[in-house]
Structures are given as C-alpha cells and as structure tokens.
C-alpha cells in the first residue's frame, strides 16, 4: 500500500513538473509568435508606406509633366500608330 | 488552547473567579470563529468575484485596431490606403508629470500647455491629447516616458491620387468610418474587425506581458473598382480645362464600358482633395454625376425617335414639317433656333430640331413614350450603389399635358442624372440592350435588358453618327481614325425658387460613343453655365468629349474603324448656331 502511494506520489510530482514546463513552453512560444507578428506588422507598414510613396511618385499628373517638360516627349499622332491585332485576342 | 486553559487554571488557583477565565476563553474562541468564518466567506463563497477584482488590477483587455482595406483601380493601382499612425491619450487619474515634461510634450504634439493641463485635471479615465501623429513624433513622445500618457495605434487614410477620383472614393472620418462615396457604400467590406488582447500591466500601467490573444485583428478587404486611373486622369484633366476655357460653374463627365457596363471614369470639377479636409465644402463635395439631376435637353431626342420607330409610327426617312420653325401646342409655342424647313427624322436628330422632335413625340400615346423613358432607366436609380444618388424626375404619364409630352421629347420637364443618361445611351451602342452599370471591376461582358430591337438601335445609331458629321450639331466631337456617334444638348437652366427658365444660363452636354462599328465606350459630358461666350453643347461639351474619347480609345487599344484622313476640316464653317 505504501509502495503504491509512493509510486502515485512520484507520478503526481512528474505530472506537476510537466504542467509547469508545458506552461513555460507555451509562454515562450506565445512570445515568439508575438515577435513574429510584430515583425509582420512592421513589414506590412513598410509595404504600405512604399505603396503610398509609389502612388505619389507615379501620379499621372507628375508623370505627364516630367515627360512633357523635362524629357520633351509628345503623344504620337494617330497617323504614326500601327495597330497590330492578335486575331485570338480581339476585343 | 491547552496552554491558555492551563494558565487560566493556574490563575484561577491564585484568587481569580472562575467565570473570568471562562469568559476569556469564550471571547477568544468567538474571535477565532469570526476569523474562520470570514476566511471561508472570502475563500469559498466570494472567491470568483475577488479573483476577478484582483486580476483587473493588473490584467487588462486592450483593443487592437484592424487595418481598413485599400481601394484600388482596375489595374491594381492604389487609390486609397490606410497607413498606421499613433494617437496620444492620457488616463487623467494616473498622470504624474513635471511642468518640464508637460512643456516638452506640448511642444512635441503641438497642443498648448493650458489645454493639456485642463485635460489632466478632468475626472475621466480616457482622453485623447492628439490624434494621428507621424511615427517619428510618436517615438519622441514615448521617450518622454510620462506616467499616464499612452500611445494608441491607429490608421490614417491617404488618397495618393488627390482630387482625381475624390468624388468616387469619398472619404472617412477621424475614426476611419466611411462618410461619402465608395468609402461609405462599401463600408462593411472595407472595415476589418478589431482584435482583443489580454495583457498584464505593472503598477503604473505599462504593459509588462502579453498573456493571450483573445481575437486577432482581422484587416478589412481590399476593393477593386472598375475605374481605370489613366482614363480617370485624362477625364479630370480635360474637364478642368473645359471649365477654365468656358468659365463654367462646374462640369461632370462619366465614361462607361459598353460591353461590361463598368464605370471607367467619373469626374467632377470643382473637386476636393480628400487628404485636406479644409478643401471640402458644399460645392466641391458633390458627385454631380450621380447626386445632381438636370434637364438633359436635346440629348433626349433619340429616345422619342427610337420609340416612334419601334412602334412603327415613323421611319428614318419620314418627312417632318418644321418649316415655320415654331409649333403651337395648347397656348405654348415651341421654337427652333432658326427655320429648318422640311426635315426627315434623321435630320431632326442631326440638326437637333425641337419642333421636329415635339411633332414625333405627339404622335405617341403618353403611356408608350413614358414606358420607353422608364425602361431606358430615367426616373429610377442606376443601381451602382453610390450613396445619395438622385433618381431624377419622370412624372407619371397620366399627369402629362400635351405641351409637357412635347417638351419632354427635347429634354425639358424631365430631370436625369448624368449616369442615367450615359447608361441610357448604351441602348444605342449595344444594339438595344440597357447595360447595368457598376463601380466594381466586372471584366466580363454582361447581358443587359433588351429595350428596343436591334434594327431600331442601329437606325438611331446611324442618325447619331450623322449628328457628328460636318453638317451635324456635334461635329466637333469627331476623332481622327474612329467613327463616332453622339448627340449634343443645350438646356436653359431652371430658375431657382420660381417657375420658368433662365434666359442666359445654360447646361451644355454631349453624350456619345465610339467606335460605331463595334462600340466600346460611352462618354457623357456636362458643362454647367459656360459663360465665355459659347454655350451650345456642340461647341462647349463636344470638344471635351472628343479629347477624352480619343485618349480613352488609345488607352484601351481599340482598333481604328476609319481611315485616318477622315478629319479634313469641312469646307463650310461648322453650323453651330443650332439649338442643342
């Protein structure tokens, strides 16, 4: 009887330690996950900023101004257009 | 106990009465029981409540803002995007700052010290000091490390295209809720779900540890519009130019894809910059294309002709007598700008004769004419989902007097919005089908409701093409290399607050489509109160139409359907004195 009790007590201790370890592990993993999520958020922020920047720099008004004023570009007249029609893709 | 009683025994033996020791024992036991009872009460019966109270002292649930979805054009270009910013808030009960710290804080966030002091002495638990600070400034605030001052992550909405698509997009309020336009109409799609986290805080409220994520923030969905930002830019640019050139009060334009019913561009001038709230006022905020109704004028003539042809009352070569240049209906008189003689039905459209159109309309029973206008979408909203759209006004036919039926044929006594007008022209462009319009990308052709037969549609289309020939009122809408069809409109503006029309204030419009051999785009242009001398649709709205249409066809890579030399200037000067 005493032997059984000691045995069960040992199991109890092992289980208790297991619970503690598992909890600790869970906390650690949660922190890791948080870290990664923060990184993901940061990257997303950066991506948004870049998209915004691109949107601002590639504004049609700006592109047109640079093309016309700085690069002396013009819209070619219709007579200088050659339209190649892909027969399968005609819309 | 034993010792106590033992002692009491000994004291008893040294001349104290026995009741004193018993009383003492009783009192001590009573105290013990009270303590035990209290312990049981706290630990057993009231445990949950107390535990919760304890936890709330250090553990807290904080909200995490979800990012609002961005809005893109049909090619994925960004039209609206939410960027993260920080807001400074305080818990006035916790704030403990030196005057020096407050001075620095005031300087950083640009709020006066007096205001900050006032908020600190409030009895609330949450107050904003300053919202939407750029990340760099927020970091400096964080470094001040003042007790009770916190930062909250929020989002700020940016519109990189500024006023270009302002009316379509609308804007959001400071809390990120849609207020106008697409932002309002698709609020549910764009908004995400706020997340919740449980955290452990230390004594002064700093977050020490994240305990669990109750709910992850769910970002809103992105929205892809049918708008092509290149065409949108072109449309806005030409509109601004036309307004300046003709010293107009305002102008609107809308471009529809004939096959899919998608709105490729929709612009108004004046517009506002959604990034600067100060530029928003009553004049600039309205998306006139949809929320303003106007009397369309001659652009409505093709519908009277179409229904008269559909019901077999006229053919395109039926002669209409307009020789007097005026027509008496009841005790009112309908006039043409000038006497145009006998005209065929085709020429009525081409020369835009009011008398001719009125005569055609009077051949019809009111119900038939009403049904045509109703089925063409006038008097009902276009169903594009834009908030605040007007349905225009199409009065029920049993209230019509003959003069009203006559004037309606040339677009007076009825009001429409520009989108309705553009959509109604898809009937002629798409062989009789009224295409359902959408602001969201569809990309696949849709089948519209059949309104008139293919034959009638093609016949009217031919007349509309004649209207932009050198002899037509809309000849300045022509484009090199493409066959164009369309109709001019010039309407007197209604007087405000009283009956009748203003003599010298006009709405000039042009609605048309190209290329005629296989129509791809419908464009409707409206110029409100041009005041630089010219006011006819053919000289004010048609040139703007032509420029936008030409650019649009180029952007869409639409093949030419005419030799390029088709635009030799006509030998006779354009006759623009025609009405409409």
Strands, helices and their partners?
The complex is a heterodimer of chains A (91) and B (580).
Chain A: H1 2-57, H2 60-70
Chain B: H1 2-13, H2 18-45, H3 47-58, E1 59-64, E2 71-72, E3 78-90, H4 99-109, H5 113-120, E4 127-133, H6 135-144, E5 149-158, H7 166-169, H8 181-185, H9 187-190, E6 195-201, E7 207-215, E8 223-224, H10 229-245, E9 250-257, E10 263-269, H11 282-285, H12 288-291, H13 301-310, E11 319-321, E12 326-329, E13 332-335, E14 342-344, H14 345-351, H15 354-362, H16 366-375, H17 402-409, H18 418-424, H19 426-429, E15 433-434, E16 449-450, H20 454-467, E17 485-494, E18 501-514, E19 521-528, H21 537-555
Parallel strand pairs in B: 2-8
Antiparallel strand pairs in B: 1-6, 2-3, 3-4, 3-5, 6-7, 9-10, 9-19, 11-14, 12-13, 15-16, 17-18, 18-19
Termini Cα gap of chain B? 115 Å
Helix count of chain A equals 2
Give the helix/strand class of chain A.
mainly alpha
Which consecutive residue ranges of chain A, at least 5 long each, have pLDDT under 50?
none
Radius of gyration of chain B: 37 Å
SSE topology string of chain A: HH
Oligomer: heterodimer
Radius of gyration of chain A: 34 Å
Share of helix of chain B, binned? 25-40%
